[in-house]
Amino acid sequence: MEVYLVRHTETVCEKGICYGQADVEIQEDYLPLFESIKKEIPEDAIVYSSPLKRCVILANYISKGNFKTDSRLMEMNFGDWELKKWNDIPEDEINPWMQDFVNVSVLNGESFVELYERVNTFFDEIKKTNPSKPVVIITHAGVIRSALCKISKLPLKDAFQNKVNFGEVKKMNF
Hints:
By secondary structure, the chain is α/β, with parallel strands linked by helices. The protein has five helices and five strands, in the order E-H-E-H-E-H-H-E-H-E.
């Protein structure tokens, strides 16, 4: 199965803000980047998107409205940390997570392994349908990193070795 993982374009959040499932806007003047992304993916692809608007806007553009959303493609849930400055998160909360983000859940959020498991259920379901066309997934860095860990058999603790830029397209075969 040919899959194109696409990270949404840059958001309006200032650097240093923790946003995962917060539904934030993307920066204006995105159409040139959308056009560039569109050239990297097949026209006849089946398109899936995270339901967060930073992904839906891009999915709508590249698919002319012909896409499906799936909440399993949402970014990691940062719970109580959503929209806080990383530097303002109390050390007694952030330090355990920084030492083991794979297994430690954010208060009222999730751990990376929980994100990984929900993303895997999405991919398992898609593989069962055995699509005859390429699949494009408009999503977030955490989701893409988890998929890359699965494909490359990279331990989850090393997920950040997978660099994923805003608007980047990663083609792979599952």
